[in-house]
Design goal:
With about 325 residues, this protein is of the alpha/beta class.
């Protein structure tokens, strides 16, 4: 029987490259794809995931569940998963729950019978529901901690606390935090981190939200902030919200950063914006996806659930400046 290894040898490529050429041709150079396809046809080889599962016990597929494709935060994580899988000749099956807990559980159940493992990105399901899948196949989470389940946690809560500390050092004493979507596990952690940092630094924090991570939501919140003359700085849950705030405050005649400072708790590069000098967090999201794939391999066979923490980095830009009523000498002393 002709195997994938035979096809790879005939085409002069690795087994992983041959697998990608036959299962994900868009990821392989045209010349390489043509050589592999020609070799497979000449040798009578048909790449079939179901047949592969019957002979090896593996489908070569990993199921990935995300709550939304509209939020640019998730795309780099999925890219990281795909990159890690491609290196070993495996592929991804992506399912979108559209923010529905019941849909997420139903989709996970359908995927579980077709894949070698599941990655839940920012899952909405209860801990017990996610943990139940570990009896069937390896499972890992991203941006959610579930007892007894391997997980990757991107430390945006620690990063957003750094933003509040940065603003306090600039003399801001009244800061608004525009929180994330309702029901989000990570949104709750970021909000708690903001409140703790505000308590520690003596900042009066005003929580606005929950707010969906959309530009139009940022525009709506900007109207409320522009009317509140006490607030001198705003921290946004997402880069989309930050862009909406920028636009809305500009339309209201509020200058950034002269009148108000702005910062976001994720990386603007996630939405490919070239807006310069914005204070934000550098968030290595692809690294989180790659780490999730590694955890899946560690969980097969099952081992003690391991957690991976991905650190963030505060990137100070021109969207934050000293509070207007704070003397420069006091700002320097507080930094």
């Amino acid at each position: 029987m002709v195997t994938l290894a035979d096809v790879a040898q005939a085409a002069g490529v690795s087994k992983a490259t041959a697998s990608r050429a036959l299962s994900r041709p868009d990821m392989v150079a045209p010349g390489t794809r043509e050589r592999v396809t020609a070799a497979a046809e000449a040798m009578g080889f048909e790449f079939n995931a179901s047949a592969r599962a019957l002979t090896t016990g593996r489908t070569g597929l990993i199921g990935v569940l995300v709550p939304s494709l509209a939020n640019p935060y998730f795309a780099p994580i999925v890219t990281g998963v795909q990159r890690a899988l491609s290196e070993q000749g495996d592929n991804i099956l992506l399912a979108v729950s559209e923010g529905s807990q019941s849909s997420e559980h139903e989709l996970a159940g359908k995927l579980a019978s077709r894949v070698d493992g599941l990655v839940f990105i920012a899952p909405l399901s209860p801990d017990a529901a996610i943990r139940a899948f570990t009896s069937r196949l390896p499972v890992a989470t991203v941006d959610r901690t579930v007892p007894s389940v391997p997980g990757v946690l991107v430390d945006t809560p620690g990063g957003v606390a750094d933003i509040v500390t940065h603003l306090a050092g600039l003399g801001h004493r009244s800061v608004a935090y525009v929180g994330g979507p309702a029901g989000s596990w990570m949104a709750e952690r970021r909000c708690a981190a903001v409140q703790e940092a505000a308590r520690r630094t003596g900042v009066d924090i005003r929580i606005l939200g929950p707010v969906p991570p959309r530009i139009d939501a940022g525009l709506a919140v900007a109207e409320r902030i522009a009317a509140d003359r006490d607030v001198t700085a705003v921290v946004a849950y997402s880069s989309y919200l930050l862009l909406g705030l920028h636009l809305g405050l500009r339309d209201a005649g509020v200058r950034v950063p002269e009148d108000i400072s702005l910062a976001a708790s994720d990386d603007l590069t996630a939405i490919s914006t070239d807006r310069p000098d914005t204070t934000t967090l550098k968030v290595p999201l692809e690294e989180a996806g790659i780490a999730a794939v590694r955890l899946l391999h560690e969980a097969d066979p099952p081992k003690r659930a391991r957690r991976v923490r991905i650190a963030t980095e505060l990137m100070v830009g021109g969207s934050t400046a000293p509070a207007a009523d704070v003397p420069p000498a006091m700002v320097r002393a507080s930094e």
